[in-house]
Amino acid sequence: MWIANFFVAASATMVLPFLSIYIETFGSFSDAYVQRWSGFIFGITFLVAFFVSPLWGRFGDKFGRKKILLITGYGIAVSIFFMSYVDSVAGLFFLRMFMGVVTGFIPTSMALISAQTNKEIAGKVLGTLQMGTVSGGLFGPLIGGLLADAVGFTYTFFITAIVITIATTFVMIAIKEVVVKDEKETVEKKRTMKEVIQYILADRLLIMIMLISLIVQTANFSIQPQLALYVGQLLSAENIAFMAGLTFSVTGLGNLVATRFWGIQGDRIGHDKILLICLVVAGVFFLPQAFVTNIWQLVGLRFMFGVAIGGIIPCVTAYIRLAVPISMQGEVLGYNQSYRFLGNVLGPVTGGVVAGIWGITSVFYLSSFLFFIAALLLLLVLKGKKKRTIAKRSLVNSSGRA
Fold first, then answer.
1. Shortest CA distance to 107 belongs to which of 346, 347, 332, 344?
2. Which of 23, 85, 189, 375 has its Cα between 20 and 30 A from that of 162?
3. Looking at the predicted structure, is the pLDDT value of residue 188 above 60?
4. pTM of the model
């Protein structure tokens, strides 16, 4: 699953380095037109996935998660394959839209592994699996850029489609889905989508967990479109593009290094506590990026920021594993993934608007504020949960003495 998640995650980001150049091959367009449609074409995948992810999760809970992995894996491969033959902006847009429809592979894989993992080591296992997703997102642009330079755009899509097909076939042959005992016992008690939503709304901490997923993605992606410009302000050399890429990728590297560690610590002291720590530390390392005076200060802070947010996704998934019945975990993870996809869309838009009005450094202020607000809200929810638990125990003890 690690290998499959790596290539699926890479496929979503591999077009970043050459998307605008690829659009220019379709005709003679103005720079504004190319920039506008580059944003539309990249963002439409995540926007569609925002609406579709819970459905894939629900189908996985009902019909089997391995089946959904095969449908979405081969679906992604087909969409990328046809991108190698597309000859218009509209065609590329609709293929990226279709890719969003079938982007249910990663949350379904998390649900599959989560359901078959002991609760005591859920953070460790899911953190390890998340390393594959993070690695794919990190190396996707690099792989895409190298392939485009080496073999051209057409063969880049073609090769990627073949690799994802092989990875999905590997899942079909090598991965066995074990039906957990709890799922057999609740097979007659499948909840409707309305009941699942009501279950989520009844758990304040679960709502907060999903809100954190949205905030983290929004804050993280808010600076992405402005990062190259910010690096350009710190450098006068000719290698601005390379340093911008390094600054972008080093966050993923920090994430990759730390995600398994945070998962293990979550298993040991509690995933909610690790989430709180990660949010505070992320804000602490994000804010100083507004005050750097040279590129290496920025690189170092971006790396430490990546380390901080590396624990958020595995701890969120592990908490859902602990708090949600197995029979509906896939759907709940799908909702959580939807919030992450929404953050992927809102982040660049918000960052662009804020930077355009108040300057690039204001984006760092805003995102740091979001991290600290999320930490404060989580702390309040955790305190409220603790008070309710103490009150419930007192009530039970009083009833027992009576």
1. 332
2. 23
3. no
4. 0.76
